[in-house]
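Input chain follows. Return structure tokens only.
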Amino acid sequence: MRTIAFVCVLTALAGCASHAASPLASSVMAAPERLTLVGVWEGTITGSELASAEGVKAAKARLDVTPSGTWTLRTNMAGTDHVASGVVRIHGNVATLEGRINDGSSADGSQVRLRLVETTPRAAYGSVATVLTGSNRTSTGVQLKKTA
């Protein structure tokens, strides 16, 4: 159940990580200055797929985006840490973060895609979509504030 909830959380912050260098990395953040995404972001991931009998839960999330165009997302669901990472692509004012879950959980290797829109240089919102093994899909929302 925790893995499914984590995947739902990642659905809000989706991205495609790879364990080796991505062939897309050279074209990834061609103009990172167009968005102020580089840095540390903290916030929450929420959605009906994170609901339990007690109602919809929010998971804390920390997103680190590097100047080279890579990202790492860390969340904690019910006391268990989860990690996903990947590369960033910028299209206008929308950042698409594509990657994979890489935390050793049963969802390890699942595809993740986050779509983020900066509402200000220090605030962003978006969605996370995760494709689990067996083609099960989850989708959640995310709200982040830049902390560094």
